[in-house]
Amino acid sequence: MERREAPPSVRIIHSGHACNVEEERHTERVYTIREGETLELTCLVTGHPRPQIRWTKTAGSVSDRFHDSSVFNQTLNIAKILRTQGGRYYCKAENGLGSPAIKSIRVDVY
């Protein structure tokens, strides 16, 4: 059976819990983490063909801004996060069909 093409959809999870579940909800998603801990955000993506994923932070690419961050497949890791690394993180998925799917989460570091 041939798979039909489908535009991308996105969810962001941290610690195994969904952060962005419904498009219609206007509540802000916030993840609070202690300075020095490891931030791990995973972008769960569906779509056919398989969407390309890009993580960004408020202004610019995550990897351009932080030397201690890494992106592996769908997961963004920042080891020993600093307070200055808090802010809004975006996961953008696109596969050339329809509009890109974008989700965000605000990370507060204390």
TrEMBL record:
Give the protein name, as stated in the record. Ig-like domain-containing protein
InterPro entries cross-referenced by the UniProt entry: Cell_Adh-Cytoskel_Orgn, Ig-like_dom, Ig-like_dom_sf, Ig-like_fold, Ig_sub, Ig_sub2
Classification via SMART domains: IG, IGc2
Question: GO MF terms on file?
Answer: axon guidance receptor activity
User: Which positions fall inside the Ig-like domain?
Assistant: 8-108
Give the superkingdom in one word: Eukaryota
**Organism taxonomic ancestry:** Eukaryota, Metazoa, Chordata, Craniata, Vertebrata
GO cellular component terms, alphabetically, are: axon; neuronal cell body; plasma membrane
User: GO terms for biological process?
Assistant: homophilic cell adhesion via plasma membrane adhesion molecules; synapse organization
Which PROSITE patterns does the protein's record reference? IG_LIKE
